[in-house]
Please model this.
Amino acid sequence: MTAVGYTTKLPRSGTVPRWAPWLTYGAATALAVILSRATGANVALLVVAAILLAGATIYVWSRAVEGSRRATDRVATLAVTSTFAIAMVPLVSLLVTVIRRGSDRFDVAFFTESLRNVVGDGGGAVHAIIGTLVITGLATFMAVPIGILTAVYLREYGAGRRLATAVTFFVDVMTGIPSIVAGLFAYALFALFLGPGVRLGIVGAAALTVLMIPIVVRATEEMLRIVPNSLREAAYALGVPKWKTIVRVVLPTALGGIITGVMLAIARVVGETAPLLVTTGVITSTNWNPFEGRMMNLSVFAYFQYKTPGVPPEPYFARAWAAALTLIIIVLFLYFVARLVSLRWGRTEIQR
Amino acid sequence: MATRTPSEQTNEEAQQGMEVGREACIEVSDLNLYYGSFLAVQDVNMRIERFKATALIGASGCGKSTFLRSLNRMHELVPGARAEGRVTLDGDDIYAANIDPVSIRRKVGMVFQAPNPFPTMSIYDNVAAGLKLNTRRIKKGDLDTVVERSLRGANLWDEVKNRLGKSGSGLSGGQQQRLCIARAIAVEPEVLLMDEPASALDPISTLAIEDLVQELKQDYTIVIVTHNMQQASRASDTTGFFNIEAAGEPGHLVEMGPTEKIFTNPDNKATEDYVSGRFG
Model:
């Protein structure tokens, strides 16, 4: 009587050939391309149609051979893969376009010369690169300590208090403020003391600081939240005071994530245009001093090259694309450095 | 509460018996421990003797760990938690207003249930952490001596002496727990509190920890919370049994006495039921 259950055979089913999905996708894609050529219809629509067609085909085929469970699985696989591919299209397209059009002027002069007294072809963006690095560096220098210390207060000291709840709320609100508002705030603040029309690198840095602080606070707070309480208790049980526990145990444990958060914040502001347009102004020559005179930066540079080209406009457009490429490379470089730093110093292997 | 009368008598008798020629390290009187308004542990009176291992047994949730954490003022780290009553360490009231909790924790170290080495530090730095973080300046040679002595004290030296610079997270669970013990004894506390130190370990590592307790009590006073009856009977000199009347009621110390007596001939019926496995 008990043996009956064991003698039942497991259900058997066939399998579609391994190349079946690829054949379906390939055929559907080929059909879409041919149709697009023949009718001149919208490519995007045809891609969607091809995916639906491929899904329907593989479902019917697989259901006939393998049964409904595997058929559903194959459709789900196709859906996940194709949405991923669609999401990659704009990213790849953007990168390819920027690299192709930016490489025209991606030469030595672009990184060694400014636009001082340059009309038409030639010149470079060294003044904008310097401005971007100085302004962003200054903003990071101001935002990171404030952001990290705020997060330490919120998590380690203020948890549950009304002040902390209020600060958390306003940090969340600040995350969403439009960047131009930060720019106008910084401009208005400095205009109070230095008079209207003030254009300085430090004003731009102040605007970017306003944008960076909430991102740093949020990232640090999340990282401090996942540092296990047992580590804090272990330090307290050794007779280590609270502040030293935070500085020597909690923050180092969270370092990897904090660095990632800081890099995200930098990447967010390094390409800002609007707040810098109103705070640092436009200039064609190099200025290293954020406390005196206007400062150019890469995104404002690209904007102005495109908005007010000379005749002929091509050299101006080429410089704008090269500036965009430079910005992307700076951001990539920052990510690379952040990975290295967190690999080297921030062992993030938090247990349990 | 009529049910508690015998245990109080037992406590007093036991205390009177112990006072002959024995030195108390920690004395607890009328201790009540709260989480917010919830009374978690009620009316504990206890003497913990110097250079002895004292085991605290009892079912889960009866307040053993809470009580243990009150002995080095770790209890109050939980938001809303507070203690009422008197706990003296060498005659000083550790809950007096002018006493800094940090200074208590330097004298009363603690080993936790789950091993918790600092993940960002090497094995060496883990052991040295207490000294490095507390002392302004310390000579490298002195630090080396302390690290070796502590690791030897925790029976871990031979296993890690060639990998002191590696991360402590790479060790096995039992090794990590001994690393935590080494870290705790490196600051040379007077008392070592152990909160179920072997509950996450296999039997062999557990035995290593128990042997270690036997050795450590030459130099330290040890209070160990355990769910393991054999562990309490093997490793301790004195045993205290905690219990609760019902869920939601406060825990209290039912009976305390020499381990042999508690496990063979306890005065209280609840203790006998618990140690013989008929309950809990």
Q: What stands out?
A: Residues 31 and 85 of chain B are 4 Å apart (CA to CA).
